[in-house]
Specification:
alpha/beta, 13 helices, globular
Length: 349
């Protein structure tokens, strides 16, 4: 069975994916907040599924409640695929009371407001699927207890609640890897931290020890070799390597010059300079924010102050400039951002 798993973007949501990753040998993972992100991710999942017509598929949504219309549309899409020869089981596991109407209308919509989604998902694997082995249960079950304690605010007098508080802040503060450019790496980073956290569960003052160790756990993930460094430098090196792996997808052009375009990266001076030094065939670097604020960097081959000025009355220095696009619309789809920026650059040719 192949898993296609959409989950929320918080501790509970990522914990659901930690659970399924421990069980399924093959899976594809997606994350969304509410609103348009849910619809866009479901659309992408349905597109990705088309390559697996001969496989048994579990289409799983956790820690997200769907509107009546979203539930109706998804039910229709899955039924259509199954009529066309697919073998897809649709399952939603959630605990938000706002999904009650959908739960009343669809049998695949499981709702239990007494448990967090991670606890529901853990039970689903053990009770509906073949379940975890005893070694996995030893660390995963107490971890789920802590997540449940903090997510629905129960067992507040226990050590598990305090441990859950540390988990909550740890997962929410993963900013070293951009979640839009590198969604899989960002998710893997969070799941790595969660699994490593379980090692502290049986220790005295586990929540304090975990809190002390998060910095070093992050560094261990970001290291590319045995060489230690500050977490900022390790993050920059990790980022440059990640950008290089995706550079063909992130490439834009301007009058014969190659540039790299990122989205929501922020604070680009150090990574932009490092990337341009390591990739001599690239002449400029652009990062655009969700609100259309845009930063340009170069290494002397292109005057980015002129580009910023011509594009949106921006400006700055030849190698470091910026502007704002008032016609930019926030999106979670990088391809939309790239099309927007390339059209702007082409207009200057």
């Amino acid at each position: 069975m192949i898993l296609f798993h959409l989950s929320h973007t918080d501790l509970d949501g990522y914990s659901c994916q930690l659970i399924t990753k421990e069980y399924f040998k093959k899976g594809f993972y997606y994350n969304a907040n509410y609103g348009i992100e849910v619809k866009l991710n479901i659309k992408k999942m349905l597109q990705d599924i088309e390559a697996y017509k001969d496989e048994e598929i579990l289409f799983l949504i956790t820690d997200l409640n769907l509107t009546i219309q979203e539930s109706k549309d998804l039910n229709k899409s899955i039924n259509k695929l199954n009529e066309d020869g697919f073998n897809i089981k649709l399952q939603l596991l959630d605990h938000h009371a706002t999904g009650q109407k959908s739960a009343d209308d669809y049998e695949w919509y499981y709702l239990d407001t007494s448990r967090c989604a991670a606890k529901i998902t853990y039970a689903y694997v053990n009770e509906t699927l073949n379940g975890f082995d005893e070694e996995t249960k030893k660390w995963l079950e107490p971890l789920v207890f802590c997540i449940n304690a903090i997510d629905i605010w129960v067992d507040i007098e226990t050590d598990g609640f305090e441990f859950g508080k540390v988990l909550l802040s740890m997962v929410s503060r993963v900013r070293e890897i951009n979640n839009i450019l590198f969604p899989d790496l960002n998710r893997d980073f969070r799941l790595y931290l969660l699994k490593e956290s379980a090692k502290f569960l049986n220790e005295e003052n586990a929540h304090i020890k975990l809190d002390n160790e998060i910095h070093f756990m992050k560094k261990e993930f970001l290291k590319q070799d045995e060489h230690d460094d500050t977490i900022d430098n390790l993050s920059a090196k990790y980022l440059v390597k990640s950008l290089e792996d995706l550079k063909e997808k992130l490439t834009v052009t301007y009058k014969g010059h190659k540039g790299l375009l990122t989205y929501t990266l922020g604070s680009i001076s150090i990574p932009a300079n490092a990337f341009l030094v390591a990739n001599e065939d690239y002449d400029f670097f652009i990062d655009i924010s969700r609100k259309g604020n845009t930063s340009f960097r170069a290494d002397g081959k292109v005057n980015v102050s002129l580009i910023a000025q011509e594009l949106a009355d921006g400006g700055g220095h030849p190698n470091a400039s910026g502007c704002r696009f008032d016609d930019f619309k926030e999106t979670i789809d990088y391809d939309v951002v790239k099309s927007f920026m390339q059209r702007k650059l082409d207009s200057l040719a």
